[in-house]
């Protein structure tokens, strides 16, 4: 009985904390019009409400993962909750552009601490079948949370105010902090010191890389800075005895495949989540609320399938499940790329969403499991950090690619079709990574 009680409370803390991060991203997707109106933001300034968050989130992820290894998961997790909750409060109170942009950047630091730390806590807490089940729930939350959050964001933006979506994080953060004190095991961390040179070079390199994707000027110089500092970071990690990201993580074929595949998969999905609600509002006349509700075919199927992942993994293996999931997602995206207003919502969007939801439910948990496969102790936080780096950076890159493709073609429908087709191509490459790296790597163990 005690074992079951521990599983319930710790998993609740992990999943609720992860859901807060996902909720904020989706509120931005559905609430941008209202935010711009309330704060009198032009399009360029409005883009920084999202970009400031992505910048610090991507830049601090590796630091967040390593800090949990050194200073104790619970302590670092609590720090992340304080930063995230305080940042959410300031965003909700924002009265002008500098205030909301600065608050979103601060909030991104909290997310960068929470995301890898929650996954590392999961790895520390569960073993065997319990770990498989916990990872299945964690991976499923990445898809279910993003889809459900679109609905919640639409409700807030249409019926209340976009500010509620940020204010709600404050009591949730306080509750999570209380549960962390009561339920998470207290740990002092592991002996060692922080690699400050690696931390600084990764922070500058990752931030510059994200800026080169989401920034609106000096993107090429930012990319050059990113390449130089990330190259310096890799050299530092090679020579130091206590790296912030051990390069041995990339010696495992299965993990490398998971990192590459997750990067591509989230690139396709983030673009899909961003441009599809806009299409439904502009071409089908949906409100922000209805555009969120229109994701229910994906969300419901995703939820049902995700609950079966642990059982299906035991039957088909993690790699086999992942291959099937990516293939289904790619097929659904390809189908969606044929949408026209004449076809309508049910056959042109809802039906492909069912296939995408089925594939997503089968994919995200196995991607997470493969990304932290065969890691122990000190490497758990670092591997969790890399998983989240690929998730965040892949999403940013993919979103930029799909939006750019959409803008290249005249008309919103034509642009949407080509962007979604590009997403299907990214998924096809992710499928190649799974077949050539993850499945063989799993069989070798």
Automatic annotation (TrEMBL):
Chief place where the protein resides: membrane
Keyword entries, A-Z: Cell membrane, Membrane, Transmembrane, Transmembrane helix, Transport
Residue span(s) of domain Major facilitator superfamily (MFS) profile: 10-442
Entry superkingdom: Bacteria
Membrane topology, record value: Multi-pass membrane protein
Stored InterPro entries: MFS, MFS_dom, MFS_trans_sf
Species of origin: Levilactobacillus angrenensis
Name of the protein in its database record: MFS transporter
Membrane spanning residue stretches: 9-33, 45-64, 76-95, 101-123, 135-156, 162-181, 193-211, 217-235, 256-275, 287-307, 319-339, 345-373, 385-406, 418-439
Pfam hit, one: MFS_1
Compartments reported by the entry: Cell membrane
């Amino acid at each position: 009985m005690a074992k079951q009680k521990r599983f319930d409370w710790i998993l609740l803390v992990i999943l609720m904390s992860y859901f807060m991060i996902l909720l904020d991203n989706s509120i931005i997707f559905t609430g941008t019009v209202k935010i711009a109106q309330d704060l009198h933001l032009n399009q360029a300034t409005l883009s920084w409400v999202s970009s400031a968050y992505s910048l610090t989130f991507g830049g601090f992820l590796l630091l967040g993962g390593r800090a949990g290894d050194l200073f104790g998961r619970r302590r670092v997790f609590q720090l992340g909750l304080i930063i995230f909750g305080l940042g959410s409060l300031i965003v909700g109170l924002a009265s002008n552009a500098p205030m909301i942009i600065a608050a979103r950047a601060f909030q991104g630091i909290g997310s960068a601490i929470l995301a890898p730390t929650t996954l590392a806590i999961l790895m520390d807490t569960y073993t065997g079948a319990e770990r498989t089940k916990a990872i299945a729930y964690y991976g499923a939350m990445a898809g279910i949370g993003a889809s459900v959050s679109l609905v919640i964001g639409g409700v807030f933006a249409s019926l209340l105010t976009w500010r509620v979506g940020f204010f709600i994080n404050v009591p949730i953060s306080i509750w999570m902090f209380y549960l962390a004190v009561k339920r998470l095991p207290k740990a002092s961390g592991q002996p060692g010191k922080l690699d400050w040179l690696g931390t600084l070079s990764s922070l500058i390199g990752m931030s510059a890389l994200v800026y080169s994707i989401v920034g609106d000027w000096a993107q090429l110089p930012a990319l050059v800075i990113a390449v130089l500092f990330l190259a310096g970071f890799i050299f530092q990690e090679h020579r130091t005895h206590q790296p912030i990201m051990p390069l041995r993580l990339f010696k495992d074929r299965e993990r490398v495949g998971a990192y590459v595949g997750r990067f591509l998969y989230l690139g396709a999905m983030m673009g899909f989540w961003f441009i599809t609600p806009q299409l439904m509002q502009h071409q089908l006349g949906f409100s922000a609320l209805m555009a969120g509700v229109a994701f229910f075919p994906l969300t419901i199927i995703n939820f049902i399938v995700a609950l079966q992942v642990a059982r299906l993994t035991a039957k088909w293996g993690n790699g086999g499940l992942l291959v099937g999931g990516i293939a289904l997602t790619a097929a659904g995206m390809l189908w969606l790329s044929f949408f026209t207003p004449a076809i309508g919502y049910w056959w042109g969007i809802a039906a492909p969403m069912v296939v995408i939801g089925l594939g997503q439910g089968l994919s995200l948990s196995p991607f997470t499991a493969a990304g932290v496969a065969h890691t122990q102790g000190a490497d758990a936080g670092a591997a969790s950090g890399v998983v989240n780096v690929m998730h965040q950076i892949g999403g940013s890159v993919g979103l930029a690619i799909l939006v750019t493709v959409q803008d290249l073609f005249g008309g919103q429908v034509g642009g949407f079709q080509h962007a979604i087709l590009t997403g299907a191509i990214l998924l096809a490459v992710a499928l190649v990574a799974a077949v050539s790296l993850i499945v063989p790597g799993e069989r070798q163990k």
